[in-house]
Structures are given as C-alpha cells and as structure tokens.
Write a structure and sequence with these properties.
By secondary structure, this protein is of the alpha+beta class. Helix content is 46%, strand content 12%.
C-alpha cells in the first residue's frame, strides 16, 4: 500500500498519476499512444475516471473510509466496478457470468470491493446508465453479498438457472458479425512484443493453427498503456482470437515487497466458488484470455434501459461473495463484522468516495484542457 505520508496528505491527481506511471514504466514497457488515450478518457466523465485510477483509490480509501479500511483482510478484486463483469464459456461450453478482470488482486479489507462497487454504481446512476437509487443500489449489493456468504455461494451459470441474467447479458453487441468486424478491423501490431508475451500468446492458440494476424487491441481503462495484443484468424472454418496483456503488481502493493498480482489472482481463481474460463491464464508477467462474442466484458451501454438493474447489482454482490469465499474462513470472519456495521454504512462510504472521485476528476479535467503543450502519453501539467 502507499506509504503513510501519501495516505495522510495525498498529492494532487496530476502528480499522483505521474508517480504511478513512473512506477508502472519501471516494471513493463508502456505504449505512449494508449496512455494518451487513457488520459483523454479520464477527462471525459467521472465513471471512466474511476475505472482508470485504482492507484488514486488506494491513496484516498484509508483516509476517507478508516472504519471500512480496518475490516478483516482477504484476497479482494480491488478494482471492482459495475463494468468489471462479463461472460465466458466453461469447459462444458456453458455460458457463465461473473467478474472478468483480476489485474489488481491483493490482500485487502473485504469492504474495499463492496465500497468500490457501490461507488461505481453511484457514478453510473448519476451518469444515467443505471435506473435505481443510491440507497437501493447499496442495499442490493449487500443483500446479494450476504446471501452468497451465508449459503456458500454458487457459480452463476446462465443455463437452467439465472435465465433473466442470460437475457440481460446477451445484447445486440454480442452478435458475432459486428464483434468480428470490430476485431478484424483493429490495426496490425506495429510495436515489438516482448518474446515471453509473444510465446505465451501463440501457445494459447489451438494446435495446428499456424496462420493468424497479430493486432493491437485497446480495451479496458485501468490497464491502458500496457502491451495488449490479439492473435486472430480462421481455424476449422470459423474465426478465433486470443489476447495477451502484460501484468504488473497491484497498485495496492506500491512501496511493499509482495507477490506479483497474478500470483494473487491465480490463488483467488483457484479457490473461489466459480465455474472457470479454461482459456483465462494468469502468469507473473502476463495474462492470456480468449476473445469471442460471448467471452467479453459487458458494458453499461449494452444493458437494456431500466431493466432489472437492481437485480443485476444484487447478482454483482453475490458474485463478489463467490470470490471472497476463496478465503477458507470467509463466512465466519466477515458475517459478524458485516452485521455489526450500522445501517446505511455502504451508501455513506460510497458517497464519500464518489465525492472524492468527482473532485479529482474536476482537477484532472481542468488540467487536461491545458494539455496543448504536452507531448502524447504525458499527463497534463
């Protein structure tokens, strides 16, 4: 975690971003063009700003939510938000829904995932992407989370069970025609890819697939700037794609000696109540995954307007519990702490973090407007 002085008196958002990207660049090569795009997206609205800046959350969280930060620790997702959910196919070909990004997994208070998820719902609601209230959003998340812990969880397989979620998760943008048109339209790789990442990507392709195209892929927000490359081509008469992106330690671990984030992610995925994606492979230096119309993140813009949003937040809370159950004593450790918290604690914590996010976003947006003298890939001065 950040050193104590930074927690008590964090720097401005521009200085914080510069310091984080220097730390990041000391670990992996950075692509300046994608960083510049990330900075632009950070200035566009509070919700993409939140998604892009988990490193800032790590500075703000202990100071603004000290009671929540003192909660029991376990392996938590960290960078959890309402767009960190998607679908994949399990080893039996069944469609599964859940959290689909684990870049920031670390040993953290269990409450960090709940507060960050509720904060993202609050920002999405203010942006007109969710149809509920902040109180209902927090109550739905907590209800699903507590039920998961109390019942031992269950994987959210979208077959016989959770049909409503299947309908919600399969929107028009999951159609294979526009999906593959978008994938094949990505520009060819024009940067050198580290040999280890290239080898891992090609090893993930089916045996006998020797013809493929390497393309740069810009996706997500928090990991923008890191190497991210897709191999796509035709195999046995149909299109197929795999992706590799470079991995680094969680921003939560800055200033400490800890295991790589992917080692934490591997442990979390191995022990959680989960129906895994057999093509999602975390490693110390990279993550490999399958890309397909039904194996991707679900964006808020994909959701039907006003349909089952509160129910969806409850499912997000439930899935968070599924992941926390990777800790062998999760229920015994967390439920008493959760029940001892006052009514409305999650809504209040999310309100504090949302206000801080708005302040940082306004500061970043103002600085971004003065960016003309800055080169691509640099934060605003």
């Amino acid at each position: 975690m950040e050193e104590d002085e930074a927690l008590v008196n964090p720097p401005g958002i521009v200085a914080a971003t510069t310091a984080y990207e220097a730390w990041l660049g000391a670990q992996v090569p950075l692509w300046a063009e994608d960083l510049f795009y990330k900075h632009e997206m950070m200035a566009s609205a509070p919700f993409p700003f939140l998604r892009s800046t988990f490193y800032r959350w790590c500075q703000r969280w202990p100071r603004l939510c000290p009671d929540e930060a003192a909660a029991p620790h376990l392996l938590a997702v960290g960078d959890l938000h309402v767009e960190n959910f998607g679908t994949w196919r399990d080893s039996e070909g069944r469609l599964v829904w859940g959290v689909n990004d684990f870049d920031e997994v670390a040993d953290m208070p269990y409450t960090i995932d709940l507060v960050r998820l509720a904060t993202s719902a609050r920002l999405a609601l203010k942006g007109g992407h969710l149809k509920t209230t902040t109180a209902e959003a927090g109550a739905a998340i907590l209800s699903g989370y507590a039920e998961s812990l109390e019942k031992g969880g269950h994987a959210l397989v979208l077959a016989e069970n959770d049909k409503w979620l299947r309908r919600l998760a399969t929107g028009k943008l999951r159609d294979p025609v526009p999906f593959w048109a978008k994938m094949t339209g990505l520009r060819p790789l024009d940067n050198p890819l580290r040999p280890g990442l290239r080898d891992a990507l090609l090893a993930s392709l089916p045996s006998g697939m020797t013809e493929y195209n390497l393309r740069r892929r810009r996706a997500g927000l928090g990991s923008l700037g890191r190497e991210r490359v897709m191999a796509e081509g035709t195999w046995k008469g149909a299109q197929l794609a795999r992706e590799v992106k470079s991995a680094v330690r969680s921003a939560w671990s800055r200033g400490t000696e800890v295991q790589p984030a992917t080692a934490n992610a591997e442990s979390l995925l191995l022990n959680a109540v989960r129906d895994p994606d057999p093509c999602y492979i975390p490693a110390p230096t990279h993550v490999v995954r399958r890309l397909a119309p039904d194996c991707s993140r679900i964006e808020l813009s994909d959701l039907p307007d006003g349909r089952d949003h509160e129910r969806l937040l409850r499912a997000m809370g439930y899935e968070t519990g599924n992941l926390h159950l990777a800790h062998p004593d999760a229920a015994a450790m967390i439920l008493p702490d959760l029940r001892a918290r006052p009514d409305g604690w999650l809504e209040e914590a999310a309100r504090r973090m949302a206000r801080a996010t708005y302040r940082d976003w306004r500061e970043w947006r103002a600085a971004w407007k003065k960016r003309a003298s800055n080169g691509p890939g640099r934060p605003p001065a």
